Amino acid sequence: MATTNLSYYDKATIPNAKSFRFGIVVSEWNPEITKNLHKGAIDTLLDCGAIKENIISWDVPGSFELVYGCKKMIQSEKLDAIIAIGNVIQGETKHFDFVCEGVTQGIIDLNVKYDVPVIFCVLTDNTKQQSIDRSGGKLGNKGIECAVAAVKMAAIKNLHRISDSIGF
Ligand SMILES: Nc1c(NC[C@H](O)[C@H](O)[C@H](O)CO)[nH]c(=O)[nH]c1=O
Ligand SMILES: CC(=O)[C@@H](O)COP(=O)(O)O
């Protein structure tokens, strides 16, 4: 079933993000798409209570470099979650497959190796129109969906802090 709407969320079901620090690593390939994803993510984090100063953004050349960029950000910043933003569009060759597989496996590896949830905000589309539809178009904005995921995962990462604070 095709994507319905990526932008809908119910704040009543989302923890407050005021105490969390977020990283966002953004691919420079297809900037007209990734900039919209980035804006959607930032706006949503702020709407969920995040403080502007607690959102750190870095750019990388392409989606394949998202993995290294996220790794270096994890190693240099104290973060509660990272959003990896990219847009890969099928071209004439199999390069699309390898970029998508590489960034997917790399982000999985980061989630396993480090204790910072890395959110997969990479549009892997057959056509430019599919990317437009999912980055603020008729199907919503994947950046919004991923910001909500980042807040929820940051809360899970900090569950021990919450339980300690209430004496469990
Ligand atoms: N074709 C797309 C790319 N290709 C570039 C790679 O991501 C990478 O930067 C290069 O292979 C050097 O390592 N990247 C995208 O993000 N989107 C594309 O559609
Ligand atoms: C998806 C990509 O990596 C992009 O560079 C596709 O280019 P190509 O037409 O050479 O497959």
From TrEMBL:
The lineage of its organism: Bacteria, Pseudomonadati, Bacteroidota, Flavobacteriia, Flavobacteriales. It comes from Polaribacter porphyrae. GO terms for cellular component: cytosol; riboflavin synthase complex. The active site is at H95 (proton donor). Its EC number is 2.5.1.78. GO terms for molecular function: 6,7-dimethyl-8-ribityllumazine synthase activity. NCBIfam families: lumazine-synth. Pfam families: DMRL_synthase. Signal peptide: none annotated. Belongs to the DMRL synthase family. GO terms for biological process: riboflavin biosynthetic process. Catalyzes the formation of 6,7-dimethyl-8-ribityllumazine by condensation of 5-amino-6-(D-ribitylamino)uracil with 3,4-dihydroxy-2-butanone 4-phosphate. This is the penultimate step in the biosynthesis of riboflavin. (2S)-2-hydroxy-3-oxobutyl phosphate binds at E92, T93, R134. Keywords: Riboflavin biosynthesis, Transferase. PANTHER family: 6,7-DIMETHYL-8-RIBITYLLUMAZINE SYNTHASE, 6,7-DIMETHYL-8-RIBITYLLUMAZINE SYNTHASE DMRL SYNTHASE LUMAZINE SYNTHASE. Pathway: Cofactor biosynthesis; riboflavin biosynthesis; riboflavin from 2-hydroxy-3-oxobutyl phosphate and 5-amino-6-(D-ribitylamino)uracil: step 1/2. 5-amino-6-(D-ribitylamino)uracil binds at W29, S63, F64, E65, N87, V88, I89, F120. This is 6,7-dimethyl-8-ribityllumazine synthase. It catalyses: (2S)-2-hydroxy-3-oxobutyl phosphate + 5-amino-6-(D-ribitylamino)uracil = 6,7-dimethyl-8-(1-D-ribityl)lumazine + phosphate + 2 H2O + H(+).
